[in-house]
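Sample pair:
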Amino acid sequence: MKRGIRLHNQILLIFPILVPIIAGILVSVLKLEDRGKRQAFVGAAVINSMVLTVVVLQTCQGQTLTLFSVTPGFTFALGVDSLSVVFGMLVSILWVF
């Protein structure tokens, strides 16, 4: 059971990257002509991204998600350590303002 929870948390690491990308694609695809609707959509996407980033940083402490390996000693991975928590919280909160 713990392995399933850990895998779920590891996959959760990719969402703060995917959500803004998907929101940006949706803004261009939906072609929101009304400025107020477009600003509301972008504002909701930014706040959603901030909340998701804070949740991921709090729940995934010490987790690492290996995306791919180039060689046995060289991997591309996402991880949460103490410095990334400080930086991620600062960036996600300042992005709103």
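The mean pLDDT is 82.
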